[in-house]
Specification:
There is one protein chain. The longest helix is centred in the middle third of the chain and has 18 residues. The strands form four sheets. Strands 9, 12, 13, 14, 15, 16, 17 and 18 form an eight-stranded mixed beta sheet that branches. A four-stranded antiparallel beta sheet has the order 1-8-6-3, covered by helices on one side. By secondary structure, it is of the alpha+beta class. The radius of gyration is 36 Å and the shape is elongated. Among the domains are: 79 residues, OB fold (Dihydrolipoamide Acetyltransferase, E2P); 219 residues, Chloramphenicol Acetyltransferase, CATH 3.30.559. It contains twelve helices and 18 strands. β12 and β13 form a beta hairpin.
């Protein structure tokens, strides 16, 4: 009995230490499949994984030995994915690739761009290496976490391998494309299956029946017939978003615009006298926008209803002032926000506008830098606009429009003199803001801009 127990222990020990012997000792079974792995607790640090597949032992086996190899330090593949794009953004469009397969990339180097409803987001490489391949195509709709590219960390021959793979990749044969076109032509020339079926059943297909089967375009979105020297280009996500928000603004708000004009003489003189000293001390140019922002802050403090917003059956009054500055970029209109503008001086306002403007034009502005905003200033004067009626940026209740400066004859002290004048416009939600508050608001802006000394005296 003792001899039998010892033999049993010896056999069990041998099976645990030698997978091949374990497979041979299994009696009455033709095929063996290993679905588990053993971990040696007393294995030394850095010991390699000893699991090996034994598929060659049983070539006729219908089963497959499942193993998972560990990633090595050389030639490791890493996935580049779409980053988090903001709380209110669930997806975007892969607009363009900045690199090609086989190109060398560094850590955090942009390899692609995703266009969202608000901004363009870069997809950066998580590691340095070579682009193995792209797993998405331009124009695809992607979500945060979606795979964009495969990055190879290998530094030895990674780029040539990719080039060779591209050369060896089978090119789409022209005959197949030609055959597809021929099939389409045949399908178009062949009679429809519906008239044949109708004749077989003793029915006659009338012209009205055939016309009804065609999908007619929606009357609200007419499809224009193609013409010569025209091209149809899909709208970008940003342009579609801007169009939707502006139309929603017209459909939601009771829009009304009131106007006034501002004499820019004193503000222009102030800028001319102190622009060099201002630039030397603060490192930023003194512009007109900071004067209008300070005037807007003072007007909003005097007329808090203009800074409020309707929410259902309630009115939300904001005790802070975040000024949105409308910036036109090549990709569309964006509105970066100056936070807590009531706490900033002229220099801080100019610095903030300069930084946000550069980010907006370069496409690197973030969602957080455009979120919120209680009031918007739009300066159409930089494009030469003389007069306009701006549209409210939801969920705000008003927007101030600035325009170009032109010398016009004005009566000053009983004399007609030439003065640099600017028209300003306030579009507001008449459901919340009455004409009285709107006019008082514009007059306060006019008073501050025409005489900035009022800010020092708080009058």
């Amino acid at each position: 009995m003792a001899i039998l127990l010892a033999a049993a222990r010896l056999g069990r020990t041998a099976r645990l230490k030698n997978p091949l012997l374990s497979a041979l000792l299994v009696g009455g079974h033709e095929h063996v499949r290993s679905l588990s792995s053993h971990v040696a607790l007393d294995a030394p640090a850095g010991r390699k994984d000893l699991r090996v597949p034994y598929i060659g032992l049983y070539k006729d086996s219908p089963y497959q030995a499942w193993t998972r190899s560990f990633a090595s330090d050389t030639g490791k593949l890493i996935e580049a994915v779409v980053p988090f794009m903001g709380e209110s953004i669930s997806d975007g469009t892969l607009s363009t690739f900045l690199k090609k397969p086989g190109d060398r990339v560094e850590v955090d180097e942009a390899i692609a761009q995703v266009e969202t409803d608000k901004v363009t987001v870069d997809v950066n490489s998580p590691e340095a290496g070579f682009i193995e391949k792209f797993v998405a195509k331009e124009g695809d709709t992607v979500v945060p976490g979606a795979k964009i590219a495969i990055i190879s960390k290998s530094t030895d021959g990674a780029k040539p391998d990719v080039a060779e793979k591209e050369k060896r990749a089978p090119q789409p044969s022209q005959p197949s494309a030609t055959a597809d076109k021929k099939e389409e032509k045949k399908a178009k020339t062949l009679p429809s299956a519906e008239p044949v079926e109708a004749v077989a059943k003793g029915k006659v297909a009338t012209p009205s029946t055939s016309v009804s089967t065609k999908a007619s375009p929606s009357p609200s979105e007419p499809q224009l017939p193609p013409k010569e020297r025209e091209r149809r280009v899909p709208m970008t996500r940003l342009r579609k978003r801007v169009a939707t928000r502006l139309k929603d603004s017209q459909n939601t708000f009771a829009l009304l615009t009131t106007f006034n004009e501002v004499d820019m003489t004193n503000l222009m003189q102030l800028r001319s006298e102190y622009k060099d000293a201002f630039l030397e001390k603060h490192g930023v140019k003194l512009g007109f926008m900071s004067g209008f922002v300070k005037g807007t802050v003072s007007a909003l403090q005097n007329q808090p209803t203009v800074n409020a917003v309707i929410d259902g059956d309630d009115i939300i009054y904001r005790d802070y002032i975040d000024i949105s500055i409308a910036v036109g970029t090549p990709k569309g209109l964006v509105v970066p926000v100056i936070r807590n503008a009531e706490r900033l001086n002229f220099a801080e306002i100019e610095k903030t506008i300069s930084v946000l403007g550069k980010k907006a034009n370069s496409g690197t502005i973030s969602i957080d830098e455009m979120a919120g905003g209680t009031f918007t200033i739009s300066n159409g004067g930089v494009y030469g606009s003389l007069l306009s009626t701006p549209i409210i940026n939801p969920p705000q209740s008003a927007i101030l429009g600035m325009h170009s400066i032109q010398n016009r004859p004005m009566v000053v002290g009983g004399n007609i003199v030439a003065r640099p004048m600017m028209y300003i416009a306030l579009t507001y939600d008449h459901r919340l803001i009455d004409g009285r508050e709107a006019v008082y608001f514009l007059r306060r802006v006019k008073d501050i801009v025409e005489d900035p000394r009022r800010l020092l005296l708080d009058i």
